[in-house]
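sry for the spam today, last one i promise. struct tokens for design, 506 residues
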């Protein structure tokens, strides 16, 4: 059977002519490359029978590397490559051919032709020709003069005929496709924008961020259109027509296309990251007249403190168009401050040295919601609080009310007074050691004094320690540290409020 296949190989015309240039009388040096030993051995036998001493098979190689090496060491005039052997990558093979400038004849032979052999190509390659052959695969076309070199009848050539697409008509396809892609891109982009994926943009920071979103919509719309339109067009226009039996052109490798589709994504990544970095800088840039709000998160609540007034609220009230600086901390686990309409989001971490900042300038009056965006335990899903953006006047009115409410509560009043007078700098309310004794759990406790005596921390003792702090100094604390100014600077009512506050710190 193999003999039938290979009977056609004949050196009658061109090869001989070519060989003539090498030197008449010398045997042709043939190298056969196939991983299939049967292919090589059969071919070798036929060469011997047919050509005797005129052709000598100088080598049978079974792999790419072996073949390339043999081409160097054995210097063949003709290389016969098994076209069906996948390990003999044709393009790779030829790229090695072009390295040298020695002309060499190559034949690609396939044995898969339903009982007949197919010679795909027969060339004497110079380096430049080999290059062409790589880039413009005029594959699977039998040589023009079969009688000249094949002994098998013409009818047994079953090389599939590719459907030729003339250059002009392929241009027409690309123009149509370009129009389809552009139209589809615009429609998909408008669809994405109209679908209101994003909620209202309620902060100045949302504007650059939404710019990035729009850029991404455009990229998504374009890539989606590019892929689907090419697919759609190919399915509709290039589908197999009735009666068509051939195969499509076999295209392998295109350096230009590969360079383009590597360069474009690199460029896109660079552009998007540049815009992203600029936007980030814009979003976190401090403003001149920022209003600070201290945010405390805990399982499962949000608490907002306005340090200028000492007001604490469980709703975040903000005046419109005012730059806000949120300083955020957590009492327990990691939470996350997220108002979708503001676009920005920040994790809130436990630990004094991990206070996180977030800047927001509300630009839209309305009611929003701060949603914890970090899984933080059982009630995470319910950890939300109202965010109210009002006009500056409404905000001031609200703040006035809050301050009044504070003023109606002696404990709250005491807290505010102690803050305003700097008590907290020395007396902690969480039990931490300080310059003075902590207020936590102080009320009603026995205190040991510097002289060894003890005293109960009751109203009278606390009052005395505020107005005349040197009389009873607690053991372990230095005398003359706490100022004696409070007798004059605080009213009796204020001192009573501070004592109420100390009582409340348990
Ligand atoms: Cu806090 Cu989730």
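last one done:
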């Amino acid at each position: 059977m193999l003999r039938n296949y290979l009977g056609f190989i004949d050196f009658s015309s061109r090869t001989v002519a070519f060989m003539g240039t090498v030197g008449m009388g010398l045997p042709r040096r043939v190298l056969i490359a196939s991983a299939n030993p049967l292919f090589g051995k059969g071919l070798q036998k036929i060469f011997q029978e047919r050509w005797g001493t005129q052709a000598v098979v100088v080598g049978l190689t079974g792999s790419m590397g072996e073949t390339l090496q043999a081409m160097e060491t054995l210097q063949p005039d003709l290389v016969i490559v098994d076209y069906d052997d996948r390990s003999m990558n044709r393009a790779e093979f030829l790229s090695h051919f072009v390295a040298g400038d020695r002309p060499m004849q190559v034949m690609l032979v396939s044995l898969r032709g339903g009982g007949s052999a197919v010679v795909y190509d027969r060339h004497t390659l110079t380096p430049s020709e080999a290059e062409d052959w790589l880039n413009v695969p005029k594959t699977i076309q039998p040589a023009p003069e079969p009688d000249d070199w094949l002994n098998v009848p013409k009818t047994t050539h079953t090389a599939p005929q590719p459907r030729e697409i003339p250059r002009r008509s392929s241009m027409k396809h690309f123009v149509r496709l370009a129009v389809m892609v552009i139209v589809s891109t615009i429609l998909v982009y408008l669809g994405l924008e109209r679908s209101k994926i994003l909620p209202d943009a309620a902060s100045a920071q949302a504007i650059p961020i939404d710019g990035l979103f729009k850029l991404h919509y455009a990229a998504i719309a374009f890539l989606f259109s590019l892929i689907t339109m090419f697919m759609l067009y190919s399915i509709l226009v290039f589908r197999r027509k009735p009666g068509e039996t051939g195969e499509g052109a076999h295209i392998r490798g295109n350096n230009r296309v590969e360079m383009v589709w590597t360069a474009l994504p690199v460029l896109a990544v660079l552009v998007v990251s540049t815009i992203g970095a600029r936007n980030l800088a814009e979003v976190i840039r401090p403003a001149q007249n920022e209003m600070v709000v201290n945010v405390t998160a805990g399982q499962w609540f949000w608490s907002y403190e306005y340090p200028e007034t000492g007001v604490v609220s469980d709703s975040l009230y903000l005046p419109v168009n005012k730059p806000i600086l949120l300083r955020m901390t957590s009492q327990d686990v990691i939470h996350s401050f997220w108002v979708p309409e503001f676009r920005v989001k920040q994790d809130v971490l436990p630990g004094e040295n991990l206070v996180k900042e977030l800047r927001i300038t509300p630009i839209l009056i309305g009611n929003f919601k701060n949603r914890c965006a970090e899984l933080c335990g059982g009630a995470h899903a319910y950890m939300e609080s109202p965010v109210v953006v009002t006009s500056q006047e409404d905000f001031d009115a609200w703040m006035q009310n809050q301050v009044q409410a504070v003023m109606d509560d002696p404990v709250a009043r005491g807290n505010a007074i102690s803050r305003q007078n700097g008590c907290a700098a020395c007396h902690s309310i969480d039990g931490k050691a300080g310059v003075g004794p902590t207020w936590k759990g102080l009320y009603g406790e026995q205190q040991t004094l510097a002289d060894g005596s003890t005293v109960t921390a009751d109203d009278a003792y606390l009052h005395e320690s505020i107005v005349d702090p040197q009389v009873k100094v607690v053991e372990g604390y230095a005398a003359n540290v706490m100022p004696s100014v409070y007798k004059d600077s605080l009213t009796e009512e204020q001192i009573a409020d501070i004592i109420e506050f100390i009582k409340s710190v348990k």
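Residues 171-239+256-284 form one domain. ok im logging off now
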